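Can anyone check this?
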Amino acid sequence: MTQPSDPALAFPFLGGRPCLDFVATLGKRHATPLERIPDPGALGRWIAEAGLAAEDGPLPVTSRDLADARALREAVYRVVRSAMAGRESDAADVALVNEVAARPDLAPQLGPRRWTARHPVRAALATVARDTVLLVGGPLLERVKECGNPDCSLLFLDDSQARRRRWCSMERCGNLAKVAGYRSRNRAASTR
């Protein structure tokens, strides 16, 4: 599996759920958006790295698959954000998520291959859509948060014991916030 030449295009798997990790394929939503699936090959790479590949080797992903995936990703994002805010989701977004979730998803397998599917890309997207339905309609929704870093827009499932997690990860945004706080305190102390 080839890695992107730009480290910013690496996929962050920090959401704790496949649907939240899929939403993260569009980064920096509050600034200049960063598209991490710019082409069909990148979508195939995300499916493989997410552990949702039903085949060995590169997945045959079409331009249509990519367009469908992006439409699903944005519908999932809006549905989850609306549910987090306690608002009614847009009917078109709900219809799209439900339509994709109703398709045959990945079938789990015992043995060396974890999944099987007749249409691997469509099945992986159906699995993501079904995960969205289960998350939004279940008790874990109240634990979904957005990263506290204003430059980050990642959604994550807060699995901390106290439910006070603020960052998508300490290694990523939490560390940046701590360094910025330290520098700010040092600047303030040096001007006194």
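Reply from J.R.: I decoded it. The mean pLDDT is 87.
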